[in-house]
Every structure is written in C-alpha cells, then in structure tokens.
Amino acid sequence: MTASLRFLADAAPAAPAVPAARTGTALRTAAVEVRYPNGTQALQATSLVFEPGRFTVLLGASGAGKSTLLRCLNGLVRPTAGTVSVDGIGELRSAAALQQHRRSTGMVFQQHHLIGRLSVLSNVLMGRLGYHSSWATLRPWSRSEKESALAAIERVGLLDRALDRADELSGGQQQRVGVARALVQQPRVLLADEPVASLDPATAEHLLSLMQRICRSDGLTAVVSLHQVELARRHADRIVGLKGGAVVFDGAPSALGSQAVLELYGPAGT
Ligand code: ADP
Fold this sequence. Notes:
The chain contains nine helices and ten strands.
C-alpha cells in the first residue's frame, strides 16, 4: 500500500475489526418454479445444489431463465413453488433469513452501478453498508473498513487507482471495482448476472479469470450467468444449461458437446 493510501486508512478512529475472511456456503433450490404475474413461466421445477468453492456458470440464450434463477438465489424473486435454502441459514422465507443471506452475498451486475463522481475507494466502501444500521452510516468509515476496502481494491489490481473518480476508469476496470465492492462484504456467496456482457472479449476473459481465481482461493459459492459458450467452457467448474426455464444440461465443461450446445441454443422444442 502506498504512503498516501496508508494515511487514508489511518485517518479515521479505530473501530471493531472487520470479520475474518469466510468460506462459502451451499445454496439449494428444491423444485423451484417462477411464474411472473403476467403469466410467463420463467423457471420450471428446478432442483440444484451450488457448492462452496465451485464456479458455476448458468448458460443459455436470452430469456432462458438465468436472471430469474439468480434472483431466486438472492431472494429478490420469490418462487411461486418450491424452496430456496442456504446452509447455516435455512429457507429464504423470513425477512431475517433474507437479510442474513443478502449480507453474506456479493452481487456483480452487467452494469456496475458505480457512482461515477465518487472515488473507487468510496464506491467499494458502499459494499459495507449492509453491515450497518441506518444511523451508523452517518459516521465516517472506520480505519479497518478503509483497510478492507483497499485490500479488496488491491485484489482486483486497482490499488493505484483507488483515489481516482470511478468514471475515469475503463469499462473493464469499473467492472473490477464492482467485484471489489462485492468482496468487501466478505461474502460467502458471489452471484453475477452477465458480468461481462458489455466488455470486449479480452477484458471479459480477464474479468472472469479474476473472479474464478478469487472464488477458488476464498472457497466462495459462485454462480455466474453467461450466454457465451466458449467463455463458459474456459472458466466454469460446472455448467448449468437452461432453456425455456428448464435445466437441459448440468455437468463439467468438458461434457458440454456440440449436441448439448445445439440443444441449448437451437429453436424451442429441439
Ligand atoms: P435470461 O436471464 O436467461 O435472459 P430471464 O430470467 O431474464 O432470462 O427471463 C426468463 C423469462 O421470463 C423471459 O421470457 C422473460 O421475458 C421473462 N421475464 C423476466 N423477468 C420478468 C418480469 N419481471 N415479468 C415478466 N416476465 C419476465
């Protein structure tokens, strides 16, 4: 860490230490179905287990149900049938269970949702907000929170940009800030909805490699949606292929042959 960044971390009074790094926790869907109010059956009865330390890619064409499944996994969409549960928390039904799960779930989005005029560091610190009651957010960030944020920024290779405005960074760098913001939560679960959709191919490779490396080293449960077959083949530990809201493939990338790809991306009913 450079001297100026160390000064920044020293600027606020000491506060309770940030919890130690945590490993992943399993997510389970049991016969989960989603029918939206307009009648669209986005997910058919789906039973899956997502294990810690595994980088699972949800693969499928647009409209296949990837986002809907991800949103069930973080409790943003309530299944119309079936249950989603998290080891150590239980079924995601009560407000308390949902809050506990969301605190330990880092989200990375297609659009990074950064505040452009704020620094990289300030954006990453936003990831800590879930840990505080609303009144507590009015106080300055503690030294340990700033240190955690700088450590997360260092992990995504942007420490030298920590004090720059977020909107001065390239698209790929901004997406890495989004990853750092998720990491500063010290999540057990990392969910990402098409995180590379707006990146060029080389930047997409780099971001996925980074996310995969971090998830493996921290033992996180990672579920990432993609629509590019080759990216999924190169980066996934496991591919769950969706079509028309149903799981049509579940296995290792090496098992995803051309027939399975045809089934995933061919016309409905093939
Ligand atoms: P994917 O992420 O694979 O593109 P989605 O989960 O977004 O797929 O969508 C699955 C299906 O559900 C699509 O037919 C889509 O149009 C529909 N859908 C998604 N969100 C909603 C919603 N909020 N209300 C109604 N239909 C939706």
